[in-house]
Specification:
Strand 5, helix 6 and strand 6 form a beta-alpha-beta unit. The protein is globular. The protein is built from 23 helices and 14 strands. Helices cover 45% and strands 11% of the residues. Helix 9 runs parallel beside helix 10. With 566 residues, the chain is an alpha/beta fold.
Length: 566
């Protein structure tokens, strides 16, 4: 028997992490990466597995030194912290296994310090390594040559996570995306043929999350609807499970914009209680979308970009989005275009990022050939892309102004109020046939959201340190209640949007006040946050939920890899 620890390193402050909102909400991290519980499930029962997420607990290297094997996973945004952890472990003579999205695309990055590395998915290579390790005949490098058959994936060990410290849970339905976006590493790692779990596997995982007390979970697929025909029967089974059990879980997910073209699919998602979808919009500049081969966002079917977004919102599914600046076809006017687009789209939560070229992607290969890659590991302008139609200084300044404009309180809440008050957005999930026919179910959920609204409002007023922002939040919330008091779910989610705004607003302020931290988002800011956390208190192989994570933009989000992969 081996004693095994699997470690997920600390993320830097990011769009996805909601770090500044965690204290307000009484949690330590946004959600767990999917690799940890899945690797635990793939480990033969004879071994003892401990999952450690540095985002919810500090690392105890004396304790880690007692394990036979320490696995370290990590994405590109975590690579500096991964390097520090590996150095510390090797200095103590620990056997280190390394995997995850970053080593999959840059396998020479850590030299020969890890004892073993894993490239790509790990459903077959992780158990194979453990068998080899027992006989003392393990390889230095493992790479799974065939794509994982998702119908064979076991139920992740969510019970081994410290779930009380996460804002919400995570689970995966499928892997892969059929599109060909130039900047995306998802198609490199997981392929362009979506692979889907059986409905029975997903139901087992839902039961597991439910038993752990989770009420909200992120379906972390890079594109849930990559195979529309294949996902529909699965969603039907999930919808029936929700209906049988009184809708115990609410979901968010990621999907491509062509969702708007299939009302049957949107209805199935609503019946599953999928309430919000993150979509890689990337740019209102059609030439930039064509340049990066994001053709699904520019095809005429379904209307204009804005019309497609409005169709999803008007149906009753909220839209969050990812935006990118720095494409070859972007000129200095792109920043004003992005700001105008956000206002007209009625999207409150937008992850705006700088284009980033990930190794092994077509974008990386093209820019390297053109001599437009900054090969320094710690890029001074927040991206390794040298823009074509503006200076790097202009790109950085324009990006920061775009973020500032997006999260200025009046601008942010005007977008949110346009959707929630003027246009009276309603969640389709609560207007499906199952809800209409069950008055007691409606009453129970209304009570849950009413109580939740009160609790979150109290936490927001108590936990927001900025007096001016507290006043704005209070005024905006009271105005919302005057207009939508009969819709408690809307009131509940409006308060969560206030907490999310606090995070984005503070993150943007810090970025503008300390541009040296911003331009070193994967260096200095990582160290600053870790030191602060300690004061207050891999995929080993690529099996990620992960948000979100590649970074197609500024390496900001913990799930950057997925953030813009649709």
């Amino acid at each position: 028997m081996a004693t095994i620890a699997i470690v997920n390193p600390l993320f830097e402050v990011s769009y996805w992490g909601m770090e500044h909102a965690q204290a307000i909400m009484g949690t330590r991290a946004n959600m767990p990466v999917a690799s940890l519980p899945l690797l635990a499930a793939l480990t033969p029962e004879e071994h003892d597995v401990t999952l450690i997420d540095e985002n919810v607990e500090p690392l105890d290297f004396d304790r880690l030194a007692q394990f036979d094997i320490v696995g370290v996973t990590g994405m590109s945004v975590q690579r500096f912290r991964m390097d520090e952890i590996i150095h510390e472990l090797k200095d103590r003579g620990v056997f280190v296994a390394l995997g995850g999205p970053w080593v999959t695309v840059e396998e020479e990055y850590f030299d020969d310090r890890p004892d073993v590395i894993f490239i790509g998915e790990a459903e077959t290579t992780w158990p194979k390594f453990l068998e080899d390790w027992k006989t003392g005949d393990h390889q230095k490098r493992y790479e799974q040559t065939d794509r994982t058959d998702m119908t064979t994936v076991p139920t992740p060990r969510h019970d081994l996570l410290k779930n009380k410290h996460y804002m919400f849970g995570s689970l995966q339905f499928s892997r892969g995306c059929p599109f060909q976006c130039e900047f995306c590493d998802i198609i490199v790692t997981f392929g362009r043929k979506p692979r889907i779990k059986l409905a029975s596997q997903i139901i087992n995982e839902l039961e597991c999350l439910r038993s752990e007390g989770m009420r909200i979970a992120f379906i972390v697929d890079d594109n849930l609807i990559g195979n529309k025909r294949g996902i529909k029967p699965v969603l039907e089974e999930v919808a029936q499970w929700q209906e049988r059990n009184g809708y115990p879980l609410a979901f968010m997910t990621e999907a491509s914009l062509d969702l708007c073209e299939d009302e049957e699919l949107m209805e199935l998602m609503a019946r599953c209680n999928i309430q919000a979808v993150f979509i890689g919009i990337e740019s209102p500049n059609e030439e930039s979308l064509k340049e990066t081969k994001k053709f699904q966002n520019v095809r005429e079917r379904g209307g204009t970009l804005l019309e497609k977004i409005h169709q999803i919102q008007d149906f009753g599914i909220e839209v969050w989005c990812g935006l990118i600046v720095g494409f070859d076809n972007d000129k200095p006017d792109i920043f004003a275009m992005q700001t105008k687009f956000l206002k007209e789209s009625r999207i409150a939560l937008a992850m705006v990022g700088l284009l980033h070229a990930i190794p092994k992607t077509p974008l990386h290969a093209r820019l390297r050939q053109e001599g437009r890659l900054d090969l320094n590991d710690d890029q001074p302008f927040g991206t390794n892309v040298i823009p074509k139609q503006m200076s790097r200084e202009t790109l950085r300044a324009g990006y920061m102004k775009t973020m500032f404009d997006a999260y200025t309180p009046d601008v942010y809440f005007d977008r949110l109020d346009q959707l929630y008050i003027q246009d009276r957005f309603r969640l389709r999930a609560f207007e499906t046939e199952a809800f209409r026919k069950r008055p007691l179910l409606r009453l129970r959920h209304a009570a849950f959201y009413t109580v939740g609204f009160g609790v979150l409002f109290w936490k927001l007023m108590r936990g927001t340190p900025d007096r001016g922002l507290r006043k704005i939040y209070r005024q905006r919330i009271l105005n919302l209640v005057r207009h939508r008091f009969t819709t408690p779910s809307v009131c509940f989610y409006y308060v969560t949007k206030c907490a999310m705004h606090y995070h984005q607003h503070k993150m943007t302020q810090q970025m503008i006040e300390h541009p040296d931290t911003f331009v070193s988002t994967i260096g200095k800011s990582m160290r600053t946050r870790r030191e602060a956390t300690i004061e207050q208190q891999a995929t080993l192989p690529v099996l990620r939920n992960d948000p979100p994570q590649t970074a197609s933009a500024a390496e900001c989000p913990p799930h950057a890899a997925r953030s813009h992969s649709r």
